[in-house]
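Hi all, long-time lurker, first post. I run a small reading group and we've been trying to get comfortable going from sequence to structure in the token notation. Rather than ask abstract questions, I figured I'd post a concrete chain and ask someone more experienced to write out its structure so we can walk through it together at our next meeting. Sequence below, copied exactly:
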Amino acid sequence: MKSAHTPKSASALEPRRHSTAAAPLVELDHGEVWTTSLLVADRFGKRHADVLRAVEKLECSPDFSERNFALTSAEVAQPNGGFRAVPMYRITRDGFAFLAMGFTGRAAAAWKEKFIGAFGRMERELRRLAVQKSLPDWQEARQLGKADRRDLTDAVQALCLRAHERGDSTTPLGLWETAATRVVTAALFETGGERITAIRARLTARQLRRLALAEECYARAVDSLIDSPAHHRAVNEQGKVAVLAFANATGGREVPGVDPLRRRLGRQSGAAAPALLWWVLAWLILSVVLHVLLPAGVA
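-- Answer (accepted) --
Happy to help. Here is the structure in token form:
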């Protein structure tokens, strides 16, 4: 693609499948808030090729272009099935403002407001995350979560190797781990089309602890059946059942980064939510879920 200026390359940002229908207007990626040329084209009712050309013809300095437009690619679903890689720009708030100046009309004005509002909310979220991640409670929950995450990946790896040895599957390990992660994350949180890594980066300390317990729930379910004759799909399904039961017992799906339990307890007692009480309650629920579900799976 030729351009009057040279937008920065986003080669370090891996191409991924892109759905404009489900995607939020902006997202947090590599510590920065972005939208994409695909989303801009979709929401403003323009051809994506026209938006790409508009970016390339912007009369901005090379330095501004370098900081605010990143050329990458996305895999887009095709009408006849499958996916096709297409070029795409990731665009910062300043880049969007510069680009959108050329979009006129009442409908365009309404979408400008929506995009600017989305950028503002995500940037406020970034500031909240910076404060949150500096707190000892969050750092401790993060470290504990990493241990449970390893237990989950170890269990999934063992099941994957078993399936490969039995000739039941040739699916790479990475896809097994991604599938298990999606099951756990979707059971606990409203995903809204966001990438899993973006969702996890926004979680509160309590949500991180809850996520760790859910991952342990999945890992224990898989471990309990790893030596059984059950097909790997049945084993994974048992893991999913255990996680869904745990999620339902601990409040169902919630919004990442929003901690209603802490707010409610704070209003009632004037103090922060008791982390120890939450841990005890969650462990009791986890134990009940595993005792109720796993004997049925083994049978």
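A couple of things your group might point at:
The mean pLDDT is 82.
Residues 41 and 47 are 6 Å apart (CA to CA).
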